[in-house]
Amino acid sequence: MQNSAVPTLYEWLGGMEPLLRLTARFYERVKDDALLAPVFAHMDASHPQHVAAFLAEVLGGPKSYSAHHGGHAHMVRQHLDRHLTQAHRRQWVSLLLSTADELGLPDDPEFRSALVGYLEWGSRLAVINSQGDAVVDPDAPMPQWGWGEVKGPYAGG
């Protein structure tokens, strides 16, 4: 009998190993990107692993980012006063998606639609949270993303 359970996005993309490859290669490419390199110039060597753990948790994988790094509030704190622009955001999303293509991550329409949906939503929140008036909600839940749920409008803090 076939299992009818729908896999999480994390399971569909193959788990942690592909996310680690994605973030490692992405941040290698960031170093050569004129717009993004200055934003990440002082990035810690463990940054790609932290982003992989964050994405893993958001996409339905292990909750290790929350357990070891403080969850969504910690991620928001990393963006405070960075003054990211829409140009930064668009380039970040574009480079991440082209890196996913380069590495052969799943490219079926359903997965890519869900991934793009999260990247658009999350990167727009990163821009909002990078402005001078942003505040951190210490109780903000970790985002959870799946195969098509739409999040409501951002009401702000």
Automatic annotation (TrEMBL):
Keywords: Heme, Iron, Metal-binding, Transport
UniProt cross-references to Gene3D superfamilies, sorted A to Z: Globins
CDD domains associated with the record: TrHb2_O-like
The keyword Metal-binding belongs to this UniProt entry's keyword annotation: yes
Protein name: Group II truncated hemoglobin
Species this chain originates from: Tahibacter amnicola
